[in-house]
Amino acid sequence: MEKPAITLENVKKVIGGKTIIHGLTFGIYPGEVFGFLGPNGAGKTTTIRMIVGLMSMTEGNIYIQGHSIKKDFKKAIKNIGAIVENPEMYKFLTGYQNLLHYSRMAGGVSRERISEVIELVGLKDRIHEKVKTYSLGMRQRLGLAQALLHSPSVLILDEPTNGLDPAGIREIRHYIRRLAEKESLAIIVSSHLLSEMELMCDRIGIIQKGQLIDVQTVNDFVQDEKQMSVAFTVDDIDKAVRVAAEQCHFKIVKTKSDGIELQLEKEQIPIVAETLMKNKIKLYGIESTAKTLEDKFLEITGGKEIV
Amino acid sequence: MSSMLRLIQNENMKIYRKGTNRIMLLMLVGLILAAGLILKLNTPSPKPHVNDSWKQALIKENKNLEKEIKKVPKESQSYLKKEIAINQYRIDHHLPPVNGLHIWKFVDLMTNLVMVIAIFTIILAGGSIASEFNSGTIKLLLIRPVSRTAVLFSKYIAALLYAVLMLVVLFIVSWLVGGILFGFNGLTQPYLQYHNGHVTETNMVLYIFKEYGLNGVQLLMYVTLAAMISSVFRNSALAIGLSIFLLMVGPTAVQFLSKYDWVKYVLFANTNLTQYITGTPVVSDMTLGFSIAVLAVYYAAFVLIGWLFFTKRDITA
Ligand SMILES: Nc1ncnc2c1ncn2[C@@H]1O[C@H](COP(=O)(O)OP(=O)(O)OP(=O)(O)O)[C@@H](O)[C@H]1O
Ligand SMILES: [Mg+2]
User: Fold this and answer.
1) What is the pTM of this model?
2) Under 8 Å CB-to-CB from A221, ≥6 apart: which residues?
3) What's the CA gap between B264 and B256, in Å, rounded?
4) What is the pLDDT of residues B164-188, one digit of tens each?
5) Is residue B46 over pLDDT 70?
6) Residue A16 sits in which domain range?
7) Is the CB of A87 under 6 A from ligand 1?
8) Which of A74, A90, A107 sits opposite B137 (nearest CB)?
9) Cα pseudo-dihedral A212, A217, A219, A220, rounded to 10
10) Counting ligands in written order, which one lies closest to the CA of residue A84?
11) Are residues A161 and A77 located together in one domain of the fold?
12) Which residue, A184, A201, A222, sits at the end of a domain?
């Protein structure tokens, strides 16, 4: 198996006698989008700060493409592009001057590359204006631009969709998928927007109170629970209830004004439909509502409790 | 090395794109112009000397000074002695004094503005480190393949370069303003230096540069102090406020406490090196060498503390 681009080994952080991160161990592979999910104060930003070397680790180590961020900072950080919390840029400089600033620090970033990145994040028209005139969404885009400037192999984005409109969120999601699939970047995305994670990530790690309590692929996550509730829209509700109970032996979750809702597995949906139709019940629609990641997340973390 | 140059280039971009830093440069020029105009309007235009009448005048003045010297207390005598010696030197060497202001006298007066430059540079240096923390830009600044040490020193060097630029502007503008307002004919005036009862002639430019150099040491100390406070507390208001406060109050405080011997180890007793050229030292047994040694120790401590706090602490901004 290929080597992970980032490896965390038993990473701990203690601040003022309080353990904020309790020994995180995981790896992220090239081409993978890893979702870092957790309620407020779970320790997502703290972990990201340690990965990029802004905070020291109390224990453990982090390797980026094999280089320890502790001992070999320059070699390790070269491979990382990141946004930590909000993408704060120099407001009195233009977007372009900001990018020029970071390109000088990376070395080997050509003017062509700067233009390319500006084009990619869609800031071409406003790039020569001062950042103080930018909207939150535009700052987020500029943040993404500075993270991609030096063509890193690891991308770390702390809440990248914060402040973006739905179209912007979609766009970012597309970049992220494309960067992972086409350019094999290893990407960490932290977010509270759970529905977002579902669409964007390959794997999701749930962190709570500084502990990684679950890591699963998105598919496993969603399909974990096989039972789903399925709503059948019918004309004769009473008859449908009787038929479903007598002939299919299914538990009726509830009866609705326009139909019934059953707790089923996927394979049972056509059977129920057929039975209903055989009994001359008119079937207008079938709608299944799978358990969302959000339900799952709240189930695992036990609601909205903050550390 | 070239990576250091690029970092300094970045810092310069941030310095000169910020409105306040450009305004400070303009203010300096404005101050010189204002000072020149005020002096011009308040000093009567000098009358040209008629024959050797200036010699008679100086002889008369010296006689008065001789009388006065007997009346004043011992501490004030050295200044009068210096005046007498210089007047005598002029009489002996046929060097008529220029009445009123002349170009070099104006440039010399304007060396007082080095303290204003110090304040401007404190504002810049104190802000340049802490503002990265206040605005959160420090996060994106420190996740580059560059050591924190290099980032810190690029900021420090850029601030000092700004001070050097201001000093150059001060010299050129005060020379031009002095020349335009008071005439360039004073250019040939030598500087008469009084030292241990002897008067020697030195080049005016050399003398002015020496003044700049000695005041520059003071500037360097306060700017380094401001940079250290900025790095330790990550707060620009505190760094700027405290440094300027110390710059204003420190030297006066040590004068008050000058009867205690330990005062000579206090930073502010040593920052003003011109005390060895013009005035008397804060504590009488202090020497130039002593002050330089004390300053070197403080300087090393400031740099070390500032560096430790900048490179070793977590970034939580
Ligand atoms: N400098 C600090 N000193 C003390 N405690 C801190 C510090 N920084 C973070 N913490 C604590 O560490 C915990 C994790 O914070 P962190 O910012 O990593 O959470 P997060 O998962 O990013 O939350 P959010 O979703 O709100 O961004 C919190 O309980 C926070 O109070
Ligand atoms: Mg966070």
Assistant:
1) 0.84
2) A204, A293, A296
3) 12
4) 999 999 999 999 998 888 877 767 7
5) no
6) 6-222
7) no
8) A90
9) -60
10) 2
11) yes
12) A222
Is A204:A197 a contact under the CB 8 Å cutoff?
yes
Pocket test of ligand 1: the residue of A11, A19, A44, A189 to mutate, having most ligand atoms within 8 Å of its CB, is A44
Residue ranges in chain B assigned as alpha helix (H): 2-16, 19-42, 53-71, 74-93, 103-110, 114-135, 138-141, 148-182, 204-233, 236-256, 267-270, 288-312
Find the CATH number of the domain harbouring A110. 3.40.50.300
**Residue A303 in domain:** no
Residues A270 and A123 in one domain: no
Whose Cα sits closest to atom 24 in ligand 1? Answer: A40
Rounded to a whole number of angstroms, the distance between the first and last alpha carbons of chain B is: 29
Highest mean pLDDT among A186-200, A245-259, B292-306: B292-306
Interatomic CA distance for residues A127 and A99, integer angstroms: 10
User: CATH number of the domain that A278 lies in?
Assistant: 3.30.70
Would residue A147 count as lying in a domain? yes
Closest atom of ligand 1 relative to the A16 alpha carbon: 4
User: Is the predicted ipTM greater than 0.85, yes or no?
Assistant: no
A177 and A244, same domain (yes or no): no
Counted domains in chain A = 2
Asked if A228 has any chain B CB less than 8 Å from its own CB, the reply is: no
**In terms of Cα–Cα distance, which of A204, A212, A257 is closest to A11?**
A212
**A186: contact with B, CB 8 A cutoff:** no
Query: Best of B9, B20, B128, B140 to disrupt the A interface by mutation (most A CBs within 10 Å)?
Result: B140
Q: Closest chain B residue to A46 measured between Cα atoms? A: B316
A82 contact residues in B (CB cutoff 8 A): 143
Residue in the block written with tokens 């709503």: A231
- Would you state the structure tokens that stand for residue A259, as one six-digit string? 């139909």
